[in-house]
Amino acid sequence: MSKTKDKLYFWDFALLWCGAAISIAEILTGGSIAALGFKKGLIAIILGHLIGTAIFIFAGIIGTREKVPAITSTRISFGLYGTYLFSILNVLQLLGWTAVMINSCAQSLNLISKTMWSINNIPLWSVLTAVLIILVIAFGMTGFKKINTLAVVLLFALTLVLGWVVFRSGKLFSQPSGGSMSFGSALELVIAMPLSWLPMVADYTRFAESEKEGAFGSFLGYFIGSSWMFIIGLGAAIVSKNPDPSTMMLAANLGISAFGIVVLSTVTTTFMDAYSAGVTFLNIVPKFNEKAAAIVITIIGTAASLLVNMDNYTNFLYIIGSVFAPLFAVLLTDYFIIKKHTKIEDKLLLNIGAVIVWAIGVAVYYLFIRLDFIFGATLPSMLITGLLYFISWRYISKWKLMKNSKNFYAA
Asked: Of 40, 78, 253, 347, which is most buried by a Cβ count within 10 Å?
């Protein structure tokens, strides 16, 4: 079959998700688990990415089969009004990610510019970053594919240099763990990163030429890229007590390379956040232009990055996990196990039962966060939520609000 512009193939997905994973946020989050020490931290990174990326891939498969964006696919289980709620939550989390990414980029660029050119101006770098993101949005997905392919190759090469700077030190393997973080907490932070892409993955896999190409390409690209970024952040935090790659690159006289890594990684990753925000917004206001929505998200995110303290976003990751892990536990159980609702039902406005199970799942997630469970909160909360939905769906499937009906519809 000849390749067409509207189809994505294995390497498209591998490069797309590797580019999304190569970001300052991933490096900094990897550095946040340094208290475990390198060996335990490495286990948490690999295990967490296996769990998180596997969940992420199953959500992508639904998009490939049904040819719909991620949030639209939730209509299968929750109905039209349910997707409105999750669309709002997704736009808010994407706005948060946009602000976090722009802030992280500006902080790193400012560190480089102060050292190399005596320029100390975070707002300048924030605005410059936003302008570059908006330019990529203007090119659209076709232009982004070309930019992303070049960026991923350059970025991965630069991060290999960064890895050499980190791993050449013998301190990495001999440094004792600090002991201030539990393995379960570290594992949950790792899982939360691929989980944050759950409401977006099908925005791209819906264009897959085949289910296998979309699934394996996405898994390979994100797993390798994100794991490598986390490992670099972990190693940097242990060796230099600072996971910001700019610090290490400057120490190795690689300031220009650091500048390139920060700018390219932020632009490619934040484009995907802003683009998916535009796609999600169309679920609420179908006539709105997705590029315009993405640009507005970028502008608001830039303002937020300058006005809100973004230094610690651990709680932000937990919020994402608490909302979207139970949500997709219900959807995946419905779609792959129960298999009674595998198509979008136009007349379904709201599945009250599914929303109730989701809300219970959110509470269960925070319960496991408080318990500091060794396997984190995402995996047990998703298993419990899915099991609860599987057991109760025959009864709660009647609790539906249908179009053209003032009462609940008895299925």
From this structure: 78
